[in-house]
Structure to design on (333 residues):
């Protein structure tokens, strides 16, 4: 019996050619994806993370007849040594001439950066102001897999509110930061109240230490705004719902917060995936409303102007400060 092998050999040759073509195509696709990924990281780290913006917001919360107030909110600076562009930008914000400044914490991402924070904020400390601290003012950063934020979200864990206490962390020299702010006349709102006098107007301020690491003590400031000031607002670093509920139920018309970084890595036309607290992603940054026990407050969350030193990227979420113009509320509200 004669056996011919020509046809199978030809088929094998064609198959081999198809495999080679397929492999080349796969390599090209992989290379293309890698190039796009590299370009995205380069953009997120090299451009957007240093593309500082100013968010302008009008909030109708003041009593009738009260003149408008301009409040500059700075948050989540996360200063690292030699971030000169960020330092110049922060100094330039003094040109806005706000009525007062609110710093909502997380100034540090480097234990050696206290002098640079104080220098960058020096021109702003010429204005009346107040501050609260965030976890990164107290503790130095450490590397965390970014995917952990998504995992924690699915498990309902947020900071020390759902995880074991931090062990072996670096302690930042936050006392120097506090002393610098206090010396400039800024009010320390760590679980306490204060009053700012601005051009003949008294602004009542009630602040909390960072809820993200369970340092908030609302019971120490409960009971609603002080009766004397012309207007009052609440200040906190991380906008956890328990804090927002308490401020709102007590009748504060406005609460300022930071912490979320606006999601930091967002999806264009979709938005943030996480808030790093139990606030919903629809309110991860900017102005929104919060309702509790029949009362409604405005909430403004700053996306901040920095990042953890180990994840120095932003995507579809530029770094920012916010200039809030407070105006009279409509009659009947």
């Amino acid at each position: 019996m004669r056996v011919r092998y020509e046809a199978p050999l030809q088929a094998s040759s064609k198959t081999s050619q198809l495999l080679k073509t397929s492999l080349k195509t796969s390599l090209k696709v992989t290379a293309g994806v890698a190039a796009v990924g590299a370009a995205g990281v380069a953009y997120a780290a090299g451009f957007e993370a240093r593309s500082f913006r100013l968010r302008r917001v009008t909030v109708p919360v003041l009593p009738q007849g009260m003149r408008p107030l301009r409040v500059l909110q700075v948050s989540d600076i996360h200063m690292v040594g030699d971030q000169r562009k960020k330092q110049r930008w922060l100094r330039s914000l003094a040109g806005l001439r706000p009525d007062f400044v609110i710093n909502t914490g997380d100034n540090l991402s480097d234990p050696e950066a206290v002098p640079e924070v104080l220098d960058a904020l020096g021109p702003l400390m010429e204005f009346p102001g107040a501050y609260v601290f965030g976890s990164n003012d107290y503790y130095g950063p450490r590397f965390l897999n970014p995917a952990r934020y998504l995992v924690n979200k699915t498990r309902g864990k947020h900071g020390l509110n759902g995880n074991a206490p931090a062990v072996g962390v670096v302690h930042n020299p936050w006392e120097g930061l506090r002393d610098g702010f206090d010396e400039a006349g800024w009010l320390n709102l760590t679980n306490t109240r204060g009053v700012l006098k601005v051009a003949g107007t008294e602004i009542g301020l009630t602040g909390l230490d960072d809820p993200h690491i369970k340092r908030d003590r609302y019971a120490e400031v409960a009971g609603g705004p002080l009766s004397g000031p012309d207007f009052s607002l609440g200040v906190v670093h991380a906008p956890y719902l328990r804090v927002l509920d308490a401020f709102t139920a007590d009748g504060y018309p406005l609460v300022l917060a930071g912490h979320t970084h606006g999601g930091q890595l967002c999806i264009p036309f979709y938005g943030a995936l996480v808030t790093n607290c139990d606030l919903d992603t629809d309110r991860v940054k900017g102005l929104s409303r919060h309702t509790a026990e029949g009362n409604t407050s405005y909430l403004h969350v700053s996306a901040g102007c920095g990042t953890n030193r180990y994840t120095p990227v932003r995507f579809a979420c530029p770094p920012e400060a916010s200039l809030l113009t407070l105006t009279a509320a409509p009659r009947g509200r």
User: Anything to note?
Assistant: The mean pLDDT is 89.
